[in-house]
Amino acid sequence: MKIDVIGDVHGCFKELLELLHTLGYEQQENSYIHPDGRIPVFLGDITDRGPDSLQVVQLVYEMVVVHNKAHYVPGNHCNKLYRFFLGNNVQQRYGLETTVAEYKALSDAQQDSICNQFITLYEQAPLYLNLPEVNAVIAHAGIKESYIGRTDKKVKTFVLYGDITGKVQADGRPIRGDWAKEYTGNKWVVYGHTPVKEARFINKTVNIDTGCVFGNALSAFRLPEEQLVSVPSSQPLVEEKFSHFE
């Protein structure tokens, strides 16, 4: 088994296609297939903030659900969009408003189609992926070693939102603990969620959310090769959105 874990796309459809091409994928019908049988794994937060969230949803749905040639795990933005599509009263901010605006511009039939596609994609998705074939766990915001194998509410919150402390920074962003510093497992944990200028390798973890929607890059981590592949973003750079670690 060989996989390409793709970081937070956030509606950056153009960069996603460029990354797939760079990784060697070829378009077949409405999907992308690798001639060597590699499997793409989408790391959650495929929508919101970027210009083409619904096109990303359609492509990921085709690759994961229709053709069964890719994997997907949800992120916090995915969870929020799922609840919106279920009809829940969700606050339309932090990027959800951009996806909702795209959605509302569609015809009723198109709205029904994209809503059903995303609900199906989300409901079929595992909370995180444990892939012993490549000695890796794929989780949107990461996962503590002691949580691997569990799917209870505490683990769900961690996997979607990260190591939240309940405290917030002056700009309203949550203050998170640095779980990766404490990680001592021998499996790779590949995650995203927190934008960083360069992929962050610490212990056997790697954060590959290189902030494409904030103007930096879209990245993939290849296993078992342990190789990082990135393409530059065409979005304007928003420097203050990137986290800096000790």
UniProtKB/TrEMBL annotation:
InterPro entries reported in the protein's UniProt record: Ap4A_hydrolase, Calcineurin-like_PHP, Metallo-depent_PP-like, MPP_PrpE-like, Ser/Thr-sp_prot-phosphatase
Residue span(s) of domain Calcineurin-like phosphoesterase: 1-196
Protein name: Bis(5'-nucleosyl)-tetraphosphatase PrpE
Species: Virgibacillus tibetensis
